[in-house]
Design goal:
Elements (H helix, E strand, L loop, with lengths): L5 H6 L4 E4 L11 E5 L2 E4 L1 H20 L4 E4 L6 H10 L4 E2 L11 H19 L7 H18 L11 E4 L6 H10 L3 E5 L10 E4 L5 H30 L1
Parallel strand pairs: 4-5, 4-6, 6-7, 7-8
Antiparallel strand pairs: 1-3, 2-3
Helix pairs in contact: 2-7, 3-7, 4-5
Amino acid sequence: MNQPTLRELLDAGVHFGHKTSRWSPKMASYIFTSRAGVHVVNLEKTAEKLAEATNFLEREAAAGKTFIFVGTKKQSGDIVKEAAISCNMPYVNTRWLGGTLTNFEMVRSSIKAYKHKKDELENPKTELSKSELSKVRQAVERGEKFLGGLVGLERKPDALILFGSHDEKNAVKEATKTGVPIIALTDTNTDPTLVDYPIPANDDATKSVKLFAELFAAVINDAKQNKVVEEKKEDK
């Protein structure tokens, strides 16, 4: 999978950080300069860390591992969802559900309950009354919002892909506690030492998030496809 060029990173606004007053000193080695009171990310560092992250992603995807795409900012939620669906991976794009990693069995039970209610709602032969159907519909709508992206997740994920670790603190805490590796976009207001594969980048602009989301999905799809090809060769 080809990595984006520096020009492509530049065009996507990956280099735009936060105001210098909001910076994290631990991002110093990834910052190129500041302009008009705003930090500018060193895109050569971005490319370097991105290569490390995608190498890990490619290796793990080829081994059949599962990743949760996490991006709960309003402007990036749909982008994250579409990218995850395109590579058949689970996602969280509204709010991180506490216990997703630290109490996975509880979350899995909630997912099963949501699926049951959804099947009940879609059953044309249902014997539920109108008031009962209304309650089920409300439960399904709530479940879709917080659990819809996790349907099909039968076991704890092997890694998280965060589109902005600063805004996903609960996910970072749970992953750290349970030993789940983290790939994350780390803006200039973020502590990159809290994640395994930090990628210094703008995590607010939709063009920036879209570039990374689509890249990660493509890496996963390519890795899975290459594995299928290799397995077919071995069977001959």
